[in-house]
Amino acid sequence: MPAVTVENPLILPKVDTPDPTTTTPRPVLAVATAPEGYEGEGFPVRRAFARINTKFLDPFIMMDQMGEVEYAPGEPKGTPWHPHRGFETVTYLIDGQFVHQDSTGGGGSLGGGDTQWMTAGAGILHIETPPEELVVSGGLFHGLQLWVNLPAKAKMINPKYQDIHGGNVKLLTTPDGGSILRLIAGELAGVQGPGATHTPITMIHATLSPGARITLPWRRDFNALVYALNGNGTVGEENRPFHMGQAVVFGEGDSISVQADAKQESRSPNLDVVILGGEPIREPVAHYGPFVMNSHRELQQAIEDFNSGRFGQIPAEHA
């Protein structure tokens, strides 16, 4: 872990540390431990934001850390066909393989470092499964699924699918080369990530070497969240401790800081975090299962439309 990296980070473009005399560090408001559970056909997940007050999440709905798990032969699992409406799903695979198919004909195979960005919009059916060869052999599986809300004016747009190959992710580093920043979507220090988003967000997967510190410029109009995939460290100018499976909420300001502890566990030699921010939509949220709308009536309509077959058809070979 992770799949997309470089041996010498110093060859990468550098993100300058913000000038402390002209920026305001964001304070840490909360650190919360993600509860664990199971999803789909039985793969383990951590509900990254389940214990975060929803007022701090907008425009994000939820995020699951899938794995990290080492499957024995015959054990790899996925999800059955299921619907979505009203938001975007972002599946980022760190290790392993996954196959996506949907009712619009979109889809593809994901390997380590790849991202699929699916805009459910007015309605879509999709499935995510391990490929047959992974089921036969077993192996490591680790990834994330993030749900990004859509504003009311965009909830009924046509579905869309984006394949973001790991090789297209923008790799950046800090002035000392102590960290690798993988910019998946949005903008950081004038660099634009490959993911095209309806709701303005920034998504980064950062790997910090032991003892390394990153201080990043952050848009004042965005919220700011950090989630630890593995390792131990501290966050904010107050150096608040956090570790694998914990989410951090930052308050207002225009820079955020994360530091890796000088000593890490042998199974996790670095601190890996996901850094997220987005422009709050500030609209009512009605969330029921795979549907995210603005009102209870719209949820009822989504259920009716799904039951009436208006989300498209499962391809014949899977029906």
Please characterize this protein's 3D structure.
There is one protein chain. This protein has one domain: Jelly Rolls (Sandwich), CATH 2.60.120.10. The radius of gyration is 19 Å and the shape is globular. It has helices at 132-137, 296-307; strands at 28-33, 36-39, 43-47, 60-71, 82-84, 87-95, 98-102, 107-110, 115-119, 124-129, 139-149, 160-164, 170-173, 179-185, 187-188, 191-192, 201-208, 213-217, 225-230, 232-235, 240-243, 246-250, 255-260, 271-278, 286-288, 291-293. The strands form 6 sheets. A 7-stranded antiparallel β-sheet has the order 1-22-19-24-17-14-13, with no helix packed on it. Strands 2-3-4-11-6-9-12 form a 7-stranded antiparallel β-sheet. It has 319 residues and is mainly beta.
Give the helices and strands, then pairings.
Elements: E1 28-33, E2 36-39, E3 43-47, E4 60-71, E5 82-84, E6 87-95, E7 98-102, E8 107-110, E9 115-119, E10 124-129, H1 132-137, E11 139-149, E12 160-164, E13 170-173, E14 179-185, E15 187-188, E16 191-192, E17 201-208, E18 213-217, E19 225-230, E20 232-235, E21 240-243, E22 246-250, E23 255-260, E24 271-278, E25 286-288, E26 291-293, H2 296-307
Antiparallel strand pairs: 1-22, 2-3, 3-4, 4-11, 5-10, 6-9, 6-11, 7-8, 7-10, 9-12, 13-14, 14-17, 15-16, 17-24, 18-23, 19-22, 19-24, 20-21, 20-23, 25-26
